[in-house]
Amino acid sequence: MPELNQKATRTPWWESYFQVTARGSTLRTEILAGVSVYFSLAYILVVNPAILSKGGFDAGAVLFATAVASGLTSLLMGIWARLPFVLAPGLEMNGFVAFSAIGLMGLTVSQALGAVFWSGVLCILLTWLPVRALIIRSIPLGLQSNLALSVGVFVLTIGLFLAKLLVFEKGLPSGVGSVFGSEAIALGIGLLVCVVLRFMSNSRLFLGRLVGGGAFLIAILASCFFCRSVGITAEAPTDFTASMFSGIGKLDWWPFSQPSALTVFLVLFLVDFYGSIGKFIGLTAATNLRSRDQGVIGLEKAMYVDGIGTVGGALIGTTSIITYVESAIGIHAGGRTGIVAITCGTLMLASLVFTPLVSLVPVVATSGILVYVGYALLPRDAWRSGEFGKFDFLVGILMASLAFATFSLDKAMVIGFGAYALQPLFCKSTKFSPVLMLSFALLLLSVAVQFTFS
């Protein structure tokens, strides 16, 4: 009998490791999604040094720390946790450190970095115990959907703010900007291109199949072309100087000789600890990255990475590293694996060498995508399925309103955790949750401290 000369089909290593096909994606989609996230996130390389330099940090050292910490932590998230989350220094964190911790409370740069370091250590410790997992299990389905709603409104608000359709003063909305301004037109172009390409892709038309997961990237580039044609350009990042390595190991290993350092540590820890929980839940809503029974796939590793990033960031000279809501762009572009984070992280590290790359795309060019993604994150399936009761709906409105009005997620989370923790007082059919109540108390304490020193 003649032997069959069949050539064995080998599965690519990235397929077997990341399970790209099993998660409903392709390698091309993953890479394009990662590039899209990078262009939406690169502004942090300009903004983080600008903010922290107001508190006495060396701008060149912060740029180096931002690129390295963001790149390496995103790579770790992609390679180890295998999730499409990207990380970078949080704007809510660096503003608090520069203007409150150093400006008002009198900490030195070294003491502030020490407080950041220990907040990351505590995040890692409580993940190991595992307290974070216990807190996540205590979150009812209604609150999970409302966290997704809050994240969606927050992302949408960022897009409107970047397009100058919303004007904020001291963190609060103060009016409506120019509806016919160049920035607003840039938003409209990006949003229109995105909607058209996504529709064509879903309808399986030839051009849609050709575009695939590149709809968001094409929309960003189309908006960028318009921006540059009307003179809207990105700010150039800070130049690297001889002091670029000066932030490495600059932290005060025990900053608590200064009493106010304990307050700073508490705020940084709580915002990072609970903020990441809210984002992990909100960003993965209505995706195959989470299941009703097991929650977010690979969540424990993702939580470790979040804490490790903050510790590493403090060691090289920047503030808390957090998971960015801009990860939603990659997820809604079809990215489902760690390849998204690896692509973005690689580009963040490449920015150390190719700093002009950062100046190619003004941040307003991503505003249309952010508005589209913010809308896509809204828990419409939960609304249609009838999971939302009147109580859930009311709490959702309050949380979404606070996410919009305060330009932050932690205030919305206070309302959400508080409402569901106190619900048993008014509804005997619900059980009292000590974990939920403790979470509410800690979040309320964090917001109170921030308000006191703002």
Write up what this structure looks like.
The protein has one domain. It is mostly helical. 62% of the residues lie in helices and 4% in strands. The chain has helices at 13-18, 27-41, 44-53, 59-81, 91-102, 109-128, 131-137, 141-162, 182-202, 206-211, 215-229, 260-283, 299-316, 327-332, 338-350, 367-376, 380-385, 390-406, 410-422, 434-452, and strands at 87-89, 166-169, 172-176, 290-291, 295-296, 321-323. The chain has 20 helices and 6 strands. Helix 8 (141-162) crosses helix 12 (260-283), helix 8 (141-162) runs antiparallel to helix 16 and helix 18 runs antiparallel to helix 19. The model is unreliable at 1-7 (pLDDT under 50). It is globular. The strands form 3 sheets. A two-stranded antiparallel sheet has the order 1-6.
Largest sheet: 2 strands, antiparallel
Can you count the beta strands?
Answer: 6
Count of discrete alpha- or pi-helical segments spanning 4 or more residues: 20
In order across it, which strands form the biggest sheet?
1-6
Order of helices and strands: HHHHEHHHHEEHHHHEEHEHHHHHHH
Q: How far apart are the first and last residues' alpha carbons, in Å? A: 84 Å
Quick overview:
The protein has 454 residues and is mostly helical. The protein has helices spanning 13-18, 27-41, 44-53, 59-81, 91-102, 109-128, 131-137, 141-162, 182-202, 206-211, 215-229, 260-283, 299-316, 327-332, 338-350, 367-376, 380-385, 390-406, 410-422, 434-452, and strands at residues 87-89, 166-169, 172-176, 290-291, 295-296, 321-323. The longest helix has 24 residues, at 260-283.
Secondary structure layout plus pairing:
Layout: H1 13-18, H2 27-41, H3 44-53, H4 59-81, E1 87-89, H5 91-102, H6 109-128, H7 131-137, H8 141-162, E2 166-169, E3 172-176, H9 182-202, H10 206-211, H11 215-229, H12 260-283, E4 290-291, E5 295-296, H13 299-316, E6 321-323, H14 327-332, H15 338-350, H16 367-376, H17 380-385, H18 390-406, H19 410-422, H20 434-452
Helix pairs in contact: 2-15, 3-4, 3-5, 4-13, 4-15, 6-12, 6-13, 8-12, 8-16, 8-18, 8-19, 9-11, 9-16, 12-13, 12-20, 18-19, 19-20
